[in-house]
Amino acid sequence: MFIRARLLATAAVAAFALTTAPLSAETPPDTFIQAWAIDDMITLDPAEVFEFTASEIIGNSYETIIGYDVNDVSNIFGRVAESWELSEDGLTMSFKVREGKTFASGNDLTAEDVVYSLVRAVKLDKSPAFILGQFGLTPDNVEEKVKQTGDYSFTFEMDKAYAPTFLLYCLTATVASVVDKDLVQSNEADGDWGYNWLKTNYAGSGPFTIREWRANEAVVMERNDQWDGDKPAMARAIYRHIPEAATERLLLEQGDIDIARKLLPEEIEALSQNPDIKIQSGVKGTIFYLGLNQKNENLAKPEVREAMKWLVDYDAIAETLVKGMKKKHQTFLPEGFLGALDENPYSFDPAKAKELLAAAGLPDGFTVTMDTRNTPEVTSIAQAIQQTMAQAGITIEIIPGDGGQTLEKYRARTHDIYIGQWGPDYQDPHTNATFAQNPDNSDDAASKPLAWRNAWEIPELTAKADAAVLERDTEKRAQMYRDMQEEVLKTSPFVIMFQESEVVAMRKNVEGYIIGPSFNDNSFRAVTK
């Protein structure tokens, strides 16, 4: 049965991998086909996933411990957890696991699986492990801090009395997805916690299973009939790697795909006039920014950092290249988050930038490289920035690469400038303290937030971020984040430019597609055609 399903799914991908003559077509009624750029995917393991595409796929195939209403993120509820209670000293949260849940394998989901998933994520210590590590969990102590107390209960012990919602929001992140312990353990090799197997396989309980991933080509998902929620109408969902906006538009108009995800404003505008197509949009918490590596001696100069903030034509880019898809936004907390600061003081001013470069001892400018994901949108923004920086003498060499390549280089902090996006891992403001927190700036640091990736050593600002996450008075906490944003805005090696709106085009018969505030909230389980 597994082999037959796999062959059918593979055949479905092959059938839709061809661009035919522009004749009207129609996708199968039980198959939802998306065109997107999926070149940022490096793994399917929830303990390692930290990229936009894979996060969305995990969000539709695994279940996290806690969830929230995508229309009102303050409305927190249990997914795998049924209920929870905080101890009087604020250090231990006790959870009851919902009974009757089953993995796609047919195995029961119990507290043993939940504890195993959390312990496994911390022990593997991949990029998203820091989300759990914020509570004092380490590979050495996690088995003492996260304990099963019954078949359907467990406790989570923290090192400090954090704001209670901070832990709950962190348990909505993909790293808090519950994996099937028996299935993963049966595929362990040399004590690897099943890591090498789960990179390309599936062990979840969500509405869809992951049947197949072919890098830079396609992901095939199938309905999980073991899921205890309302069963998806679609028998399968397919992601096709189509990074070219014009190609996506053509395929959508022909009916070869149901939804186009990587369109430019001109394609959106043209498709909005097509009676067979409809446009849907939603505000994301995603921030678009430049990261300036402080290991580069020129970029490490405060005057250079500030000069570069005056060398982006924010308004021109927002009104042309990304019209309707991004809006000018220069602080690290997106709109809608507790403590978000609505200040945009920088505009395009090459004269002011030249004064700052002269003060830095670089009156003639300098040459620097910028790593850029090779998609039309990012490339066009990078080229616009290249042109405006040149007006003050800063020569930028653009180094294009696919999403995985540029991310790996950025995470190794071997870049000069990185142009990229940061999406919140959870809906608490501390998720974006990654721009303002760097507890250890050494190359082998355990915690590697964005400030670390750009080698920005900030002990005092880190202490402020540490204090903010402990504050239980909501308004006081909000003000602490506003103060941090002010400081980051003025002094950081981040040129924060835009907040994103996700805009997609779809066939008019598609209903039930949800654009959430984070990419792992994007959902197609309720899609009908």
UniProtKB/TrEMBL annotation:
One Gene Ontology biological process: peptide transport
Subcellular location per the Swiss-Prot or TrEMBL entry? Periplasm
Q: What top-level branch of life does the organism fall under?
A: Bacteria
The protein's matches in SUPFAM superfamilies, at most eight in alphabetical order, are given as:
Periplasmic binding protein-like II (SSF53850)
Record CDD domains:
PBP2_NikA_DppA_OppA_like_7
- What positions does the domain Solute-binding protein family occupy? 78-439
Q: Name one GO cellular component term.
A: ATP-binding cassette (ABC) transporter complex
Kindly give the InterPro entries that the UniProt entry links to this protein.
Peptide/Ni-bd, SBP_5, SBP_5_dom
Give a GO molecular function annotation for the protein: peptide transmembrane transporter activity
- According to the record, the signal peptide region is 1-25
**Keyword annotations for this protein?**
Signal
Q: Pfam families, per this entry?
A: SBP_bac_5 (PF00496)
Family, as annotated = Belongs to the bacterial solute-binding protein 5 family.
What's the protein name? Answer: ABC dipeptide transporter, substrate-binding subunit DdpA
> What is the originating organism of this protein?
Cereibacter sphaeroides (strain ATCC 17023 / DSM 158 / JCM 6121 / CCUG 31486 / LMG 2827 / NBRC 12203 / NCIMB 8253 / ATH 2.4.1.) (Rhodobacter sphaeroides)
- Gene behind the chain: DdpA
